[in-house]
Predict the 3D structure of the following.
Amino acid sequence: MTTSAVEREPAVGDVAPDFTADSTAGHPVTLSSFRGTKQVLLAFFPLAFTSTCTAELCDFSTDFDQFASRDVAVLPISVDAVPSLKEFKAKHQMRVDLLSDFKRDISRAYGVLDPDRFYSKRAYFLVNRDGRIAWKHIEPVAGQKRSNAELLEQIQSHR
């Protein structure tokens, strides 16, 4: 991904901007590698170790099997560096791997980088098996989050 990526939110129906990001799993993750096999829920979160982000990521871990049983890969993304994300994941015993957007290229490509704070807004993009955006939601306030029940409902309705 280049830093000249367009800084607008992709619309529902658009091909999801592809990316490769370092992860807490120890290897890079590429969005397009899921095409044809799984839906992907991109879950941008502002910063590790903050209250709403901690609750959100712990909820993903609690309901990990519900997402997995629907063939959905949950990819939480923040601007934190991988070592911070590894510590965050370990501290809360999270089951999901976290992706680092340290250079902010992914947040820019999805139009969710907060230019004043230089971290991403809390946002969700459901990418279907064809690599297109099936649903999206950007939180108007960083302290709010979607419930897993709502996310699972959106996943079910966009199969």
Notes: Residues 36 and 129 are 5 Å apart (CA to CA). The chain has a mean pLDDT of 91. The first helix runs from residue 51 to 62.
